[in-house]
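Title: Prediction job returns without error message
Component: structure pipeline
Severity: low
Priority: P3
Assignee: unassigned

Description:
Job completed but the reporter wants confirmation the result is attached to the right record. Sequence as submitted:
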Amino acid sequence: MGFNAEFEPAIASGGGTIVYNTPYAPEATSFDDVVQDVVASGPDAVVLVAFEEGIQILQTMVEQGAGPDAIQIYITDGMATGELGVLIDESNPGIASGMKGTQPAAAPSSGAAFFPQAFAEFAPGVSTIFSAQSYDCAILIALAAEAAGSNDSADIAAAMVDVSRDGEKCSTFADCKDLLAGGTNIDYDGASGAIDFLDVGEPGTGIYEVYEYNADGVQEVIDELTFQAGAAPTQAAPAPAGIGLNALDTPTTMSTTCAPSIASLPQWIAVEEGLYEARNLTLECVQIGSGPETAAALASGEADFAANIYNNVFPLLNNGLEVVVFMETLLYNLFDVIVDADYAAANDITADMDWEEAMQKLDCTNVGVVARNAAAEDLARILINAAGLDESCFTYVAVGIQPLPALESNDTDWTVTFDPFQVVAVNTGAGINPFSIQRGEGPPGLDWPGLVYMTGVDTFEAKQAELCAYKSGTVEAIEWLADPANAERAGEIAATRLAEALHPLIRRL
């Protein structure tokens, strides 16, 4: 699809016309119908974007009188092979004569002279497609590790741009390593030629071969084309770790829901540590206090995307809203059960007891939920019904994002909540966790994805690059949070970004 998106405008801008364009199922056993449609469209040339199945398509084209001898056929690197003619017709390999195509140059004229022969000796008979590029990728990673003096992936990623440009040129790992050891900045030009990474980590130079199949059906390179993405700026900063290809070309703002939960901490880290900013992405917060509010913000268009759990979105789906889930950040249930410490002591409820036994001791009590008719209440009712109890005997109390005051005032006997309240309640002695839904100790059916990020179908189709940038920054933040060295800074961010009502709880933790 990416090839098609670039190819059609290029043909049109050159004065050409696309008379027929169709995808096909590569796993199909026959391509007769597809080829018939192609032939019926009466093209002057055919571009076949295919892989192994392309051989069968070409054979079908020959059978229908539209082979390379009757029409100009172009192929891409997915079918590039030295002796395509033999694969089409072993008894008549010349059938491929005149076919043309492109492929990344395996042995560009500007590349390291030693590589083609060395690769042939190391892997005789192996396709050379992307061989030079793969080799250079490995060398660049190793050189970035040397330059960073670290084997940490984030450090290596941050050094990749610097070792590819704006330094003394070198073309082997040994030579480049020696220069680095002597304090010299390097510019690795390897088997694939000049690389010169752009700030976002993309090669600034691409070298392609144009090939044609001769009268014997054998591939011959007839031209070499070099494409420049733009000169790499001198002394530019290295690409931020983890950006990959997800940085946006222009500054972009998106709106999302912001919740005062520990599960939202990676997003706050990405904001505070500049991980979204490095991707040209700015977030605008739509403050919410519950799952239903989150779903409503998404449905109204107030938020471009939102973090929620499926239960809070089911009503929207039932009303016809089409959503796409593009990321999960918690693979376990967001919620768990906390029982008031005084109630637990009076009713012999202890930590690590059987969930059914605990629920029997909670029969006909007051249960705190974040919001009425939302996910926390759904979970409470599932527990009650699974334990064989009458859910109408319970009183459901909406306690908002802060469930502990209701426990301490005895307005609720137990609550279904999320962190940081679970941890705070136990650590401060306000409540106990008799069983853990998050560890799978409850009844079946509660292994919900804890936090999923979703958007409307229209937004997903229109803003895929922006959503990828957000996902990339969030994933990097999760990796950052997993590093114990960042624990103190993470606490500072939590205290800054979580609701003010939670600050005393954070300090108590």
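Comment from assignee: result matches the submitted record. Residues 131-148 form the longest helix (18 residues).
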